[in-house]
């Protein structure tokens, strides 16, 4: 899939579906909020949600007092929806429309959260770019929280073929720059009452 097709796919999703109608919908991403809280991060650290879509993760972190928050998504429509829906939050969340492989921020992050985004990368060169992006933009001692479909999960997401991973795959891919500090498998229940098995890994930047 070339870049234009990718952007068009996601723009169509966010132009035609409400958040409650997509398989990845979560009313409150409690599982990830709990994991983040266990990291005991100071409230002023920089946190990025990569491929945020319309997730309520950043809104919830904002409620908990985190105030240096960034959401990035390839879909401009998703980003514009967030700007409108979360415009009341002060200090404001920073919303950026960008392909994560092309993203070039002028700062680094203490926590990089990715739920169901990395698994869309299938070309080895793109996967390598993503790995380099995490190494470049996560500060030393910072965290990568990476959640993808597992080997027991679906083969497609949003109608697109994905790459599935087990814990060992993630450890191997990121081992040059990160050490694993936590891993789990868990099911996400979609709004259509089906289960999707995810692997989640928390990696610490060396
Ligand atoms: C399955 S959704 C998950 C959304 C969100 N992370 C959540 O958990 O609710 C995948 C999201 O990744 C975004 N996305 C896909 N490829 C991307 C890329 N290369 N760069 C940035 N965002 C991307 C899509 O627009 C979509 O919002």
Description:
With 206 residues, this protein is an alpha/beta fold. Strands 3-2-1-4-5-9-8 form a seven-stranded mixed β-sheet, with helices on both faces. It has one domain: 3-Layer(aba) Sandwich (Rossmann fold), CATH 3.40.50.150. The chain is globular. It is built from six helices and nine strands; from the N terminus they run ααβαβαββαβββαββ. Strand 1 (47-50), helix 3 and strand 2 (69-73) form a beta-alpha-beta unit. The model has no long low-confidence stretch (mean pLDDT 97). The termini are far apart. Helix content is 30%, strand content 29%.
The number of domains is 1
Can you write the helix and strand succession as a string? HHEHEHEEHEEEHEE
Number of distinct beta strands = 9
Number of helices: 6
